[in-house]
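Progress narrative, Year 2. Work on DUF4287 domain-containing protein from Streptomonospora mangrovi advanced from sequence curation to structure prediction during this period.
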Amino acid sequence: MSVTHSPETHAQLIARIPTVTGRELSEWFDTLEHGPGLSRCLERSNWLADEYNLSHGYAQAIVQEYDRRRRNRSFVPRQRP
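Result:
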């Protein structure tokens, strides 16, 4: 079962990650990029939670933020000539 946090809760979780985990968000993003090739959010969240002893709430927030930023990075509007 997947739980989606409200935008406010998500922002609070993201802000607490460095304090709670001892690692910056960018380090978690690197971990996801170099981790197993899991495609589903739930699979990646479960892997992070199990492998790094994170709560599922924080693991899910990391995966959601990673996906959100990756989508925004890949969308670059084309300029007209």
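The chain has four helices and no strands. Residues 7-70 form one domain.
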